[in-house]
Each structure stands twice: as structure tokens, then as C-alpha cells.
Design brief:
The chain contains 16 helices and 23 strands. The strands form 5 sheets. It has an 8-stranded mixed β-sheet with strand order 6-5-15-16-17-14-19-18. Helix 1 packs parallel to helix 6, helix 1 runs parallel beside helix 10 and helix 14 packs across helix 15. A hairpin with a 3-residue loop joins strand 15 and strand 16. The protein is 33% helix and 19% strand. The protein is α/β, with parallel strands linked by helices. The N and C termini lie far apart (54 Å). It is globular, with a radius of gyration of 24 Å.
Length: 536
């Protein structure tokens, strides 16, 4: 064990990752006599076309006692009840499905979903698209807000969409108010002790900043963590193809039904949106669509091995129905921190399209010596399930727990690294399943992704085999430890959502309960009447 001095914590790198880290540390260690300083380079590009999150982000704001009415308008934020997956499956009735966030209302419909899905997996023809069994899916489909009317005392869980550039700026103000010091400067060199501990950061202007604990939020460069001994990168490229992305923002347009019907209320209130992230499969990857209050964030995540940058851009423009004179092209080799896409200052009617490249995987160690890596410096999993901020929260939160319970020594360093690796690998496994379950045959990209099933983690193959046997996979998910990363409904949703069932189906017999679907539909429809339209 090595006692670590906690008087001075130095965070290198700003953005969402840096300022989120600063806030968590400042709040968690507020009763300890420490100084927290964040060094931010003026040379790093700003990224912020639009980003999604998981419901865990609500916990972050609750921790800091920040109201939605304060931060959401400042970050052009909107609500998100889940993710709509379009075109990943070609099976009739399952070309689209909704991955919902949980709700207390689900207890009335989820049992029917699990029952139907389990029987359909054995060849019984019962409806089992998750979109039909969750109130969150209905709210999104009807362009409603997840905040129910006052007379309906049930909450639907939700996450957020936001401009990550604006969120970083907002969190900076919060952190400074918590006492975090801010220095603008470019890191030129790092002064290491003989035991490889970092002693100080040397800026471009020659200023030396000493510290006791250093947090690396410098993105893929990993300026600090890569100076530590025994740091190795564990690649996910054997399981995940995508290594590139294109990003652009597009204007919001009024809801077509409002325009056609001449709905004056709709025109007065603004645009009506679906509180969802859309993920639509294209030829060599997938496109995201994220609604903000002032525009849509769009992106195309693809495999450079399967399509050239020029062809990917052409395909994406066609998908968005954009003409060449509406956009400019620019390159950005690596995304800054956990975000994909760069916000262009100036007119939103002539946005730049950005090309990005990244590597998928994680470090074998996230905390080594007196250095902690957070954000892209520790690893990156493609943004399919919007888990980047979740991993930041978990990394910093678990670090604080490990650090304090270890009496501010590196006593718990090994266990901490094992925990974070487990989190990364668990999320990666769920994302891999999206690709191996696809049923598209239009390009080699999709066919090869499906063939990657042989490279999957063994526990995923065990899960799939159990599903095909018609087992109650609730127990199997627990047994395999998969519930630690995604709840049981998420595993049912992805397997059923893709229509991963036998091709030949039998008509239900008298022994099968068939009214569950109709009852669920009626319940959800009636509940949805208590949620207002979502105008922004």
C-alpha cells in the first residue's frame, strides 16, 4: 500500500468528462481539505452536435441538487424515454422496436411481454414486439412528454438529450461555484518521479503545476495515463466493426400533422417531438437522430473497412436528403472526450459535416500510480446505447468509494480496475448483440457482423441458446451476471425486438393465454391519455 497525499487534485482536460469529474469529486470530497484544479487547453476543438444519455444522468443532477428547469434550457436539452431501432431486422413485424426505460407502470404489461416472447421463442405465434408492451414506447410514438399530468401519480423513467458543448460550459460554472480552480493552458510536458508517479504538469508557457492526484480527461491521446507503467489497450475490434463517424446538425421542422391540419395551438407552441433517440440501420452502419430544442443532431457510425469516407458521406447526405450546398466538409480525426460530432459556430442553415475516427476498446487499468483516466482516455464503446456519460459517472463514483474506503491509499486499486473493466465489457457485450442478431443481407457489412457471433463472449452464446430453448431467461441473465449491466427487460427487448424467433410458427392452442396482448394494449393506451403533447 502507498499512502497518497490528497491535498491537490489536478484534472487535465475539460469538456463534459472533465467538468463532470470535477463536480463529482468536489461534491464527494467536500468535507476533506483538498484543492481541485482543472487545466483546460484552449486549442481543443468543441464537439456538440447532440448527445443522449441514460437515466443515470438524473442521479448526477439530483446529487448536485440542480433543477431541470435550470440546466435543461441552458443546454438545449430534451427528454428521452428510450431508443427506437429502425431497420436492424428485416423480419415482418419486427422491422422496428423500442428499447424503453423502465416505469412503475410496466408491472401491468411486462409479464405478458415476457410470457409471449418466451412462447414465441419456442415456435408459438404470439405478438412479442417490445414496442407494444411499454408505456415509454407509446409516449414516444405519440410525441408526448414523459412528465404526466398532475392527477396521474405515476412516473415514467427518462434520460436526456443535450448539446454536449453547452453542458460542458454549464458544468464548468457549477464546478467553479463549488470551489474548483480553472486554468487555461496547453500541457507541454509531464514531470515523472522515479516510481512513475506524476509530480507536476508543465504548461506551454513554462508554468509548472504540482499535484498529488492527477485525472486524465485528455481524450484518446491519454496524455497522462499512457505515461504510466503497465498500461495496455484491450481492443474490441474483433467484435465491433465501426471505427468512423460522420456528424451534422439539421434544423427542426414543425410537426407535419400540425401543419396539414392548421393546428394553431401547435404552431404557437412550436415543434412537437418524439422523446426518443432514433437509431436507423444504413448500408455500412447506423444513423442516429437526436432532438434538441433548437435542432436535430445527426450522425452516421460506420466501418471504414467496408465503405470509403466519400461513399459514406454520399450515403448519409442522401439519407438526410441534404444537398451539397447545404453543408461543408471538414475532418476531425478523433472526437474530444465522450462526444461524437462538432458544433460549428455560426449559421445553423449551413452546417459543417464532420468526419471522425476512433478506436474501440479500453485500457487494462484505469487507475495506475497516482493517475486516474476518465472518458476517452480510459476507453470508448461506440455510442449505440449512449453509455459514455454513464461510464464517466461510474468511474469517478467508484473511484471515490475505493479511495475513501482504502484510507486514501492505492489499497483498492486492483479491485477498482477490475470493476471498471467489468462495466466496459458488460456494456460492450450488449452492444455486440445488436450486430450479431441483425437479419439484413443487403451488404457484406451486415453479413459479417452476423458472422461475428463466433467471437462473442461465451455468456452471450449461453443466453442465446437458453432463449432458443424457451427458458425463462430472467434466471439465466442473473446467473450469467448480465443483469449487472442491463436489466432483465433490456435482454428480453433486444432478443424479441429483432424478431429472433423460429421462422415456422404454430397457432396458439387453448392452453396459451392470448388475451394478455389486448389487455396490455388497452392499459397502455388509456395511461397515455394522461401525458401531454411534447412541444419544444
Amino acid at each position: 500500500e502507498k499512502k497518497l497525499n490528497t491535498k491537490n487534485i489536478i484534472i487535465v482536460g475539460g469538456g463534459t468528462a472533465g467538468w463532470m469529474t470535477a463536480n463529482i469529486l468536489a461534491y464527494s470530497l467536500r468535507d476533506i481539505d483538498i484543492s481541485i484544479t482543472l487545466i483546460e487547453s484552449p486549442d481543443v476543438g468543441i464537439i456538440g452536435v447532440g448527445e443522449g444519455s441514460t437515466p443515470a444522468l438524473r442521479n448526477f443532477f439530483d446529487l448536485l441538487k440542480i433543477e431541470e428547469s435550470d440546466w435543461m434550457p441552458a443546454c438545449n436539452a430534451t427528454y428521452k424515454t428510450g431508443i427506437r431501432f429502425n431497420g436492424w431486422s428485416t423480419i415482418k413485424g419486427y422491422e422496428s422496436y423500442f428499447h424503453a426505460f423502465p416505469s412503475s407502470l410496466d408491472i401491468h404489461t411486462q409479464k405478458s411481454f415476457f410470457y409471449n416472447a418466451q412462447l414465441r421463442a419456442t415456435g408459438i405465434d404470439l405478438p412479442a414486439n417490445p414496442s407494444d408492451f411499454y408505456i415509454s414506447a407509446k409516449i414516444s410514438e405519440q410525441h408526448k412528454s414523459p412528465l404526466a399530468n398532475q392527477n396521474f401519480p405515476f412516473e415514467v423513467d427518462y434520460a436526456y438529450h443535450f448539446d454536449s458543448n453547452l453542458l460542458g460550459k454549464y458544468l464548468k460554472k457549477v464546478a467553479v461555484n463549488q470551489g474548483v480552480k480553472h486554468i487555461t493552458g496547453h500541457v507541454n510536458d509531464i514531470d515523472l518521479a522515479s516510481n512513475h508517479d506524476i509530480q507536476s504538469i508543465i504548461l506551454k508557457n513554462g508554468k509548472k503545476i504540482k499535484g498529488d492526484l492527477f485525472v486524465d480527461c485528455t481524450g484518446f491521446k491519454g496524455l497522462l495515463i499512457n505515461k504510466m507503467p503497465d498500461i495496455e489497450f484491450v481492443s474490441y475490434s474483433d467484435e465491433l466493426h465501426n471505427d468512423s463517424a460522420i456528424a451534422i446538425s439539421t434544423p427542426l421542422s414543425r410537426n407535419k400533422s400540425d401543419e396539414q391540419s392548421g393546428n394553431q395551438l401547435g404552431n404557437q407552441l412550436g415543434n412537437k417531438i418524439a422523446a426518443q433517440t432514433e437509431s436507423t440501420a444504413l448500408k455500412h452502419g447506423w444513423a442516429w437522430k437526436i432532438p434538441l430544442t433548437n435542432r436535430y443532431g445527426n450522425g452516421y457510425v460506420y466501418s471504414a473497412k467496408h465503405v470509403s469516407k466519400a461513399e459514406a458521406e454520399k450515403e448519409f447526405k442522401a439519407y438526410l436528403k441534404l444537398t451539397s450546398n447545404e453543408i461543408n466538409t471538414d475532418d476531425q480525426e478523433t472526437p474530444h472526450e465522450n462526444n461524437i460530432g462538432i458544433k460549428k459556430a455560426g449559421s445553423e442553415n449551413n452546417e459543417k459535416i464532420r468526419h471522425l475516427s476512433f478506436k474501440l476498446g479500453r485500457n487494462n487499468k484505469h487507475w495506475q500510480n497516482n493517475c486516474l483516466a476518465v472518458g476517452l482516455s480510459q476507453g470508448f464503446i461506440e455510442p449505440l446505447e449512449a453509455t459514455a456519460l454513464l461510464l464517466i459517472q461510474q468511474t469517478v463514483g467508484k473511484f471515490v468509494d475505493a479511495y475513501q474506503s482504502g484510507d486514501f491509499t492505492n489499497k483498492n486499486q486492483l479491485h477498482f480496475n477490475e470493476q471498471i473493466n467489468k462495466e466496459f465489457d458488460g456494456i460492450k457485450d450488449y452492444i455486440v448483440l445488436h450486430y450479431t442478431l441483425n437479419s439484413r443481407n443487403d451488404t457484406p457489412y451486415w453479413q459479417e457482423n452476423r458472422a461475428h457471433i463466433k467471437n462473442m463472449a461465451p455468456r452471450l452464446n449461453i443466453l442465446i441458446q437458453g432463449w432458443q430453448k424457451g427458458l425463462d431467461i430472467s434466471k439465466l441473465v442473473h446467473k450469467l451476471g448480465l443483469h449487472e449491466h442491463y436489466p432483465i427487460p433490456s435482454w428480453y427487448s433486444i432478443l424479441a425486438g429483432y424478431g429472433f424467433f423460429p421462422y415456422s410458427l404454430q397457432t396458439p392452442s387453448i392452453n396459451h393465454v392470448t388475451e394478455g396482448f389486448e389487455k396490455s394494449q388497452d392499459f397502455i393506451e388509456r395511461c397515455s391519455l394522461n401525458f401531454p403533447d411534447y412541444f419544444i
